[in-house]
Each structure stands twice: as C-alpha cells, then as structure tokens.
Amino acid sequence: MSLLKYSNTEEKTIHEDSDLYIDSFKKKIQETLRNFEAQSEIQNDTITFKRIVRNTTHSGQNKFEAMKLVREGIIRIERIDATKIRIFYEVKLDALLFLSLSIGLLIGLIAGFASSMILISMLIGLLFSTITYFIGCSIVKSKIDEIVATSH
Question: Is domain 5-149 classified as CATH 3.40.50?
C-alpha cells in the first residue's frame, strides 16, 4: 500500500454463469455506491466512482462532508475462468493525507504555543499526523471492503 492509494484483490469461486454474476455484481456495486452518495461510471469491466463533497448551508454539515474519506477510486471485476473471478479495487487517499497533515500541523502549532520547544512541538505534530493517517486508513479499508462485500 502506498501513501496515496489503498488497493486490494479478492478471488472468488462462483457456482453460476460468470457473465451473469459479473453483470449482477456491477449493478449491485452501482446501487451501493449510489446509496453511498458517489457517482459511478462503468467502462468495460471497471467501475470508477467519485464522491463529490458538497458545500451546504446547514450548520455543521460542511464539517461532516469534508471528513468523508472514501472519495474516489475504481473497482474492477474480471473473469479468470468459468468458475473464478477476480475483484480488484483501489481508493485514492490524497484527501486523507491532506487531512492528517492538517491535523498534525494544527496540533503541532498548539503544542508549540503551549511549550516553547520547537522540536517537541514538531514531534507531537508528526506523531498526531501519523496516528490520524493510520486511523483514517483503517476507516477507508473497512468502508471499501464493506461496499465490495455487500455487493457479492
């Protein structure tokens, strides 16, 4: 896993016609993504999705919209043979990286004002950035795994 992408591959044995299963899987994925408030598009065996963050006028709603980490990615399903398929999915993590660095910078600045030691405040900021990034990665991983698992 790189810093800017999370990807995973699953292989599944099916007991029905693989073409029918692939078509059914694509429809279920699109429905799940629609419920997830993401726009999706099918190109051959690849589903690309993008979640648009909307600015609303509701109090506090903008904060929740900005914290949605699963924003853009692809899901590809391909037939290996008559009874096996491979599902590959990849999610971009650039929004997560930006949010975790912003949080680390903010915490580092607060720590810098609380204590006058620059090195300690930089280490605290870096520590909080790292912790936030890995927590966000686990959230993204569980969310995209849930989307793919509910579409089987």
Answer: no
